[in-house]
């Protein structure tokens, strides 16, 4: 379906969104604002995105009957997370345009495939090796050294599915802690800072990137994003060029998040790509209140075949995630002049769970 | 219920909204953004607000069984239009907090009651007289002169339910054209321009007004709103003071729209109040993209017992309504850099129907 020339989606059309978390919720709101309806597909009956959707389906990703009914009810399909099973993506793409397409999804949902793709494209990234067995791991550690990081190829997020290989680490235990799943060993990167580029590419190949964002993580979970990043002009330019090269090579349609490390190389900032997210990205949430177009509207515009909006920044921005009980501070944040509070409507407060975020805009 | 001391509404609470048009839709989106759920009540099965609501009820306003079920499912109730029948408002207010309250609603949904309230408060407005019969009309015209404007006390909007009394107008015919409904005759105001104040008052009496907005109507329907209004500083101050006085006198909770005429009086701008809208107001739509807090979020904050947000303006703003077929220009507007397009998801394009609006922000 994706190779045919598609008309722009008309207001009133229904956008299918696979995944019902906060990203699906904010996508649904952005879609409604442009006159679209959304149908959210998610196995979890308690999905935050259902609250703001025209329609929703609670079903497993391998319930192909439900999936086909869902697909038949919508005009285009997108997703809010990269772990949509490949078979489900194919079932969808056989019936309706899927953006980003099944190939972009397949490339980015598997760490080894993704890293190989990036390497083949000439994108700078840390050395890595495929690990399918203890023997592979031993060989990889011999090559890449310690410390290094062992990560499962699939389903990892927020530090889950990874283990640090230190001097004292027992390799067998480490591999077993990841349930011996197909994995990748990455050379450790002694980075100065973490940054990301959130960018969009339209069906026609138009590209628009938001300014490079600097990200601070705590316990592997994003804590704050600030813009502009503390980065040299040339490194910033390089980061944006990398995002464009990646999006073009994937023939990508939609918003993509490119996570990067900044390393000091003889006093110069050098960029290494860490990973790709084929979707709107937590580090782009500041765009809701501090950019002309939000990443959510931008994604909807891209997949709808509309022209992209301006990614211009309105000032200095800071986004802070509200994790677990921090969201109980809503009263204080709501009283703070100029703080833009966003809550996801999640009933259960769990330790470390992303419950909301707050955007703060300051004059440039 | 409104006299008891109420706690602030917690995220996750359900806000009931009576009326399912575009205002209800945009309120629902704003509520979701703060972590609330909404339940929309509307007799029209095709209501734009349903698309973004957690729950909706299709039932008549005098279906008290349905109304009670609706009320039982929510934590607080508000409305998006002033023609909620008084009895329905009372049924609601008996069970749950209703904001703005039933008294504010009763005062503002009847032109004669509203004008009497304003006059008693010492607010400047055009002379007016109550008209219940042809004899009343003849007497009123003898006093207020021609031209003057005859308007039904209730259910008028966008120029509907009103007739101009000119030199040649036959009074019997004029009154009959309004189906001899209880009406008000207003002295004609040769205004320079029309402006409005959109403001909010919190449960605790905190007041926050957006800047005075200048409004241009065509065929009695709002065409554009621009901010700041072309108005002297003293007149602007007076306009804001009037809005505050009105809100305080009504012990108002929520966003209120105060429509005003500006007349030249010996070279000086003088303000006359035209009418009140006990709800978010079309002339406040610019706040979505051009103010720190939108009028929709501000209304939700007020009725939820949250602190009001900053009403500060981000620059010069212009809002243009998209009426009828103008909304078919979405492609062109979407391609305009920096134009913020909002579409209401209305399936049927009708001549003059409000289909959406576009906000444009320029540096101050």
TrEMBL record, chains A, B:
Assigned EC number: 6.3.4.18
Top-level EC class: ligase
Pfam families membership: ATP-grasp, PurK_C, RS_preATP-grasp-like
GO MF annotations, alphabetized: 5-(carboxyamino)imidazole ribonucleotide synthase activity
Gene3D superfamilies: 3.40.50.20, ATP-grasp fold, A domain (3.30.1490.20), ATP-grasp fold, B domain (3.30.470.20)
UniProt keyword annotations, A-Z: ATP-binding, Ligase, Nucleotide-binding, Purine biosynthesis
InterPro entries for this protein: ATP-grasp, ATP-grasp_carboxylate-amine, ATP_grasp_subdomain_1, PreATP-grasp_dom_sf, PurK, PurK_C, PurT/PurK_preATP-grasp, Rudment_hybrid_motif
Pathway listed: Purine metabolism; IMP biosynthesis via de novo pathway; 5-amino-1-(5-phospho-D-ribosyl)imidazole-4-carboxylate from 5-amino-1-(5-phospho-D-ribosyl)imidazole (N5-CAIR route): step 1/2
ATP-grasp domain sequence ranges: 115-304
Superkingdom, taxonomy of origin: Bacteria
Amino acids binding ATP: 111, 151, 156-162, 186-189, 194, 217, 274-275
Catalysed reactions, semicolon-separated: 5-amino-1-(5-phospho-beta-D-ribosyl)imidazole + hydrogencarbonate + ATP = 5-carboxyamino-1-(5-phospho-D-ribosyl)imidazole + ADP + phosphate + 2 H(+)
PANTHER family the UniProt entry points to: PHOSPHORIBOSYLAMINOIMIDAZOLE CARBOXYLASE, PURINE BIOSYNTHESIS PROTEIN 6/7, PUR6/7
The family this protein is said to belong to: Belongs to the PurK/PurT family.
Purpose: Catalyzes the ATP-dependent conversion of 5-aminoimidazole ribonucleotide (AIR) and HCO(3)(-) to N5-carboxyaminoimidazole ribonucleotide (N5-CAIR). Catalyzes the ATP-dependent conversion of 5-aminoimidazole ribonucleotide (AIR) and HCO(3)- to N5-carboxyaminoimidazole ribonucleotide (N5-CAIR).
Subunit structure and binding partners: Homodimer.
Name of the molecule in the record: N5-carboxyaminoimidazole ribonucleotide synthase
């Amino acid at each position: 379906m994706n190779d045919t020339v598609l008309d722009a989606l008309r207001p009133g059309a229904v956008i299918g969104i696979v995944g019902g978390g906060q990203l699906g919720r904010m996508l649904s709101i952005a879609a409604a604002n442009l006159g679209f309806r959304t149908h959210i597909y998610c196995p979890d009956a308690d999905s935050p995105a259902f609250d703001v959707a025209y329609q929703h389906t609670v079903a497993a990703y391998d319930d192909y009957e439900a999936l086909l009914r869902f697909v038949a009810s919508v005009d285009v399909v997108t997703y809010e997370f990269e772990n949509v099973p490949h078979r489900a993506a194919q079932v969808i793409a056989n019936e309706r345009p899927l953006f980003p397409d099944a190939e972009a999804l397949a490339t980015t949902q598997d760490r080894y495939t993704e890293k190989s793709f990036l390497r083949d494209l000439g994108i700078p990234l840390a050395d890595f090796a495929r690990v399918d067995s203890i023997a592979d791991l031993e060989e990889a550690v011999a090559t890449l050294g310690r410390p290094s990081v062992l990560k499962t190829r699939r389903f990892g997020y927020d530090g889950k599915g990874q283990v640090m290989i230190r001097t004292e680490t027992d390799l067998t235990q480490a591999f077993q802690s990841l349930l011996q799943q197909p994995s990748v060993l990455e050379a450790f990167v002694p980075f100065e800072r973490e940054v990301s580029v959130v960018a969009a590419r339209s069906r026609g190949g138009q590209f628009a990137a938001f300014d490079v964002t600097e990200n601070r993580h705590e316990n592997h979970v994003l804590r704050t994003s600030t813009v502009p990043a503390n980065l040299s002009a040339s490194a910033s330019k390089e980061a944006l060029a990398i995002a464009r090269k990646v999006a073009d090579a994937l023939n990508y349609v939609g918003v993509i998040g490119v996570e990067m490390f900044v390393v000091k190389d003889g006093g110069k900032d050098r960029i290494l790509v860490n990973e790709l997210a084929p979707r709107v990205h937590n580090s782009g949430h500041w765009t809701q209140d501090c950019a002309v177009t939000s990443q959510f509207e931008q994604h909807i515009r891209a997949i709808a075949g509309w022209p992209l909006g301006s990614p211009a920044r309105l000032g200095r921005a800071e986004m802070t995630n509200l994790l677990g009980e921090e969201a109980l501070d809503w009263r204080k944040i709501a009283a703070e002049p100029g703080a833009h509070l966003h809550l996801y409507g999640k009933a259960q407060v769990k330790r470390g769970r992303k419950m909301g975020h707050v955007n703060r805009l300051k004059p440039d």
